[in-house]
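During the second year of the project, the team shifted from modelling isolated chains to modelling whole assemblies. The rationale, set out in the original proposal, was that interfaces cannot be judged from single-chain predictions alone. As a representative example for this report, we include one of the complexes processed in the last quarter. Its constituent sequences, exactly as entered into the pipeline, are reproduced here:
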Amino acid sequence: MNINSHSVEVRDLDLHFGEVKVLQELNIDIHEGEFLVLLGSSGCGKSTLLNCIAGLLDVTDGQIFIKGQNVTWKEPSDRGIGMVFQSYALYPQMTVEGNLSFGLKNARVARDEIAKRVARAAEILQIEPLLKRKPGALSGGQRQRVAIGRALVRDVDVFLFDEPLSNLDAKLRTDLRVELKRLHQQLKNTMIYVTHDQVEAMTLADRIAIMKGGKIMQLGSPDEIYNRPQNIYVAGFIGSPAMNMIEGRIDNGHFAGHDLSLPLDGYEFERTDHHAGPVAIGIRPEHVLTGDAVETAAAQAEVEVQIVEKLGSDTLVHSTLGSLNLRFRMDGLSRVTEGDRLRIGFDTSRASLFDAVTETRL
Amino acid sequence: MVDATSPTAGRILEGPRGSKPKSRLSRRNIFLYGTLLLVSIYYLLPLYVMIVTSLKGMPEIRLGNIFAPPVEITFEPWVKAWAEACTGINCDGLSRGFGNSVKILIPSLILSISIASVNGYALANWRFKGSEVFFTILIIGAFIPYQTMLYPIVIILREIGLMGSLWGLVLVHTVFGMPILTLLFRNYFTSLPEELFKAARVDGAGFWGVYFRVMLPMSIPIFVVAMILQVTGIWNDFLFGVIYTKPETYPMTVQLNNIVNSVQGIKEYNVNMAATLLTGLVPLVIYFVSGKLFVRGIAAGAVKG
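Output from the structure prediction step:
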């Protein structure tokens, strides 16, 4: 990929608030037309990074390029970005039309051009009947549409979303999520999207950057993030319920720990130096085999069922194997009850192995 | 779960149902309204006496019954207080003081509020290096007793040639209103969502653009609060007025004092009462007109900061 296809580049970005290092040596390249999600728990620096890209925060060190131009010291309005905020941030005293055209008026765009662009944005977002209303008279979903429209009319290269759906109720959130995806397919703009909701991240993103403590823990496609987490943090963060993490050692091509011996024949090692030190194996709840499939598994064990959570589509079982807690999924119709003893199998080809000391993938 | 065959279906169950009846004459209500009534009378009685007295002629006042309503209503004292009462050699009543007070009030009001609101806006949204220090110094200014600054200000006004003029007093009022007004505005602007400010910046609005087109239209309540504070403060001011002006430029309060405290001749209580009521009229009107906004603004500013 050549350098010109990069839409946003962040180089060695540092941001300190006094002694607190919010962002450290951060590097990220975002491709033209890409939908990148910054994901992490609160305080990980994801919103801060977005604000830096927007120009709303002064960086301590490093550079930011948008479309090949160094915008590190540029005003937010001169960066070719549009931003959508969690609280919508609509100007309450202006009508929807006023909100949409505010940025254009500031940029001294001609009157008929403003009308044209407002009309187009309103059409795309289906808010035409609301143009004369004030934000106070709109529902949450309508407000967020207007907020997106405000970025849309300005014909920007990059859209920045700061948890845009967090204030909406669950149903509306799902609807707007789909709509955002459609919008991205239609407009083909670069979009950077901050969220703490992993479902949003998985469904929307071309690539996800998982952040922690001002650093990027892993940057990759949703598929890579989910199936090949590069470290224990990412493995534990993504997936609900969380991955089962079992500590042990590698012994003669087998994982050994907690009275388990799991053959690693099918496992694709990323490093050749898989060593004698302590390791941890991560197995997702859906990769624990139950029922008839147990017989096909190379490694089996018998567990005691502790808690059964019926979710409708499937059943979530919390069980113990000696001192080890194991979570796994079963069919929604399985008749398992607390106290049952159950045979389960392990599919190690889809597991993740980590160095327990460096916490990185083996 | 109740199904149609259950024994309670289709039958009204005994016992109370619906909202609980309330007694109007409960002990709690008598106590509450009784207290409110007493306190209201306590506060309104002086006002009543003033109004009644100002509408009586002097012979009637000499009868000594201050609570009695006027037998014969006369507006003579009001006219006299406004246009004829003497202070020193001037005998044109309070009208001149009123004119002076208005001439002091309007520019002080506009100047202090416009400067303080921009101050507060800058301190809330455009944190610059040392802005916290600047703010702290400003707030400390609010706690220094006026008295210690009286004489230095005399010197400053003399040096810049404003001593004794209305503009000198305007300057003093503007400066002394600055700490509390800046605090008020800063706290209000801090309580507005920060994302709104960010959105306006992304939309290309600069310092003044954000202020005039986004912040200002959202801040009417706090402007009303500031206005009320300043109108009452400046209108009721006596100390600065008596020190920094001269007889021709005395504000209304100083003139009122001179009328009421005049030692020559007989005490014209009715004129004094009318003069006092006239002087208090401006803040009173402001309160009545903007009372609702005042309460809302105080609450809005109090949320954060």
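The CA atoms of residues 25 and 31 of chain B lie 10 Å apart. The longest helix of chain B spans residues 269-302.
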